[in-house]
Amino acid sequence: MDRTGEMLIGSQVVKVAAYDTVVNPYDGAPASKVARCSGENALQALKSAQAAKKTAAQAPLHRRIAWLNDVADRLEAQTEFFAEAITAESAKPIASARAEVGRCVETIRLAAVEAHRLGGELFPTDATPSGVAATAFFKRVPVGVVVAITPFNFPLNLVAHKLAPALVAGNTVVLKPAPQTPFCGYALARLFIESPHATPDALSVVYGDAEVGNALVTSAIPRKISFTGSVPVGKIILKSAGLKKVSLELGGNAATYVTESADLAHAAARCAIGAFGNAGQVCISLQRIFVDRSVQEAFATLLAKEAAKLKVGSCFDEETFISALIDESSAKRAKGWIDEAIAAGAKLLSGGKLSGNVLEPTVLGDVTQEMSVVCEEVFAPIVSLVPVSGPEEAFGRMNDSPYGLQFSVFSDNLPLAMRAIDALECGGVVINDIPTLRFDIQPYGGIKESGIGREGPRFAIEEMTEIKSVVIR
Predict the structure, then answer these.
(1) Is residue 147 within a helix (H) or strand (E), and if so which, with residue range?
(2) DSSP secondary structure of 444-470
(3) pLDDT, tens digit only, all 473 positions of the chain
(4) Could you tell me if 247 and 450 are in contact, meaning their C-beta atoms sit under 8 angstroms apart?
(5) Which of 262, 283, 308, 367 sits CB 3.0–4.6 Å from 384 for a disulfide?
(6) Residue 305 — φ and ψ, nearest 5°?
């Protein structure tokens, strides 16, 4: 199957002199090839987006809504093609890749629905004497040019979370997909471009890393930067962007608290999914489990059993749940952190073996706050068990992190659950399920170093529009 990602400038294919090959992280087989782009190419794309932004803003909303629905229909009809592309580039197990395509379809359709609410508000100006005999309202208008920089871990759905809201709001977009999974973003962009409802030249796609990203971010052309990725890169973007709207989704260190009143079997089964799904390469992957001491031993036994049930192996196998990490350096880093923790006194409760880029689901006990597996974002199938003496200690230790994306609590105690909602310092709280649970319709984002702004179709549309205030005397 040919998977060639071309450079798209204003929706037109522009041939380049060289292409880069992407290999599958599981077996090293060629997965795709994409155009090698430069900073100058990025500026070409931005200038094209700038030239098209007036046309995009004037496109009737009903046409933009039809555009998204058409793309969703086409994507759903090509589920297997897109799932295979995800698996080829990222080694995401094929069953999980199909699930991502399904979520992507939902995300695009949700953005189309939310566009119906793209309205404003009328103000009662006569509420004050100075406002008598006037009418005032606001409306939402497109920001103009949006730069969308997306990650490898959800190479289709997280592209949709940026493209669909931006385009339906009437913007033009320059997309830079992750270097590890560029074809997935390109293939989705082609669906948008080839739709009969498409706004001409509203979408460009360029590839690369620091040089291309820096050119996109520092240019004066875009009004909005939407980035999902690492904290260090997010900080660079924030310093370099200048006077622009910036949304940053920068990852986390998700935690849960399993109380003595919880259904331990349910909690263990769900925690195994939350910690090891997508090989732990999820911003809200469960990394820290705080457990009441009275049930710690029983829960640890249950979790180890659940982890052992998960099939590890080839990403192309229909039964596989965990396959390779995205590259060799990520795999070696994760294994190194496990070894460092064990050398510092942590106990290996299960897993821990690395074969190629595939790391077994790993459960650690006797960890300390200073260990990298606890205080840093692991982004690998590693979870740590920490005994606590009640909710105050649990909440305090969960909050003792520079990250604040999503946390959860397993408990049949409703007052305790309500306390947790207020006490936990994060962007989202889940009760009686894993912090990895996210519905695409919800607002999604964090506090502290987990980022700025919110995604989710309704909230991304708000981020990608400006408020224009109107007074009629």
Answers:
(1) strand 145-149
(2) B--EETTEES-BSHHHHHHHTEEEEEE
(3) 799 999 999 989 999 999 999 999 999 999 999 999 999 999 999 999 999 999 999 999 999 999 999 999 999 999 999 999 999 999 999 999 999 999 999 999 999 999 999 999 999 999 999 999 999 999 999 999 999 999 999 999 999 999 999 999 999 999 999 999 999 999 999 999 999 999 999 999 999 999 999 999 999 999 999 999 999 999 999 999 999 999 999 989 999 999 999 999 999 999 999 999 999 999 999 999 999 999 999 999 999 999 999 999 999 999 999 999 999 999 999 999 999 999 999 999 999 999 999 999 999 999 999 999 999 999 999 999 999 999 999 999 999 999 999 999 999 999 999 999 999 999 999 999 999 999 999 999 999 999 999 999 999 999 999 999 999 99
(4) no
(5) 367
(6) -65, -40
Q: Which amino acid is at 329?
A: S
Residue 205, H or E segment: strand 203-205
Distance CA 297, CA 80 (A): 43
Taken in order of first residue, the domains within the chain and their CATH numbers are 4-250+450-472 (3.40.605.10), 254-444 (3.40.309.10)
Q: Which are the contacts of 411, defined by CB distance < 8 A and separation ≥ 6?
A: 257, 259, 261, 262, 417, 420, 431, 432
Contacts of 343 (CB under 8 A, 6+ apart): none
Query: What is the C-alpha to C-alpha distance for residues 345 and 383, in angstroms, rounded to an integer?
Result: 16
Q: Token match 């980035």: residue? A: 227
Active site residues: 249, 283
H or E element that contains 431: strand 428-431
Contacts of 269 (CB under 8 A, 6+ apart): 302, 306
- Residue whose tokens read 């400038």: 9
Rounded to the nearest 5°, which phi and psi values hold at 175? -100, 130
The encoded tokens of residue 156 equal 């289709």
Q: How far is CA 254 from CA 99, 141, 404, in A?
A: 22, 36, 8
- Whole-model pTM: value is 0.96
Give the whole-angstrom CA distance, residue 6 versus residue 21.
Answer: 12
- DSSP line for 384-425: EEEEESSHHHHHHHHH-SSEESEEEEE-S-HHHHHHHHHH--
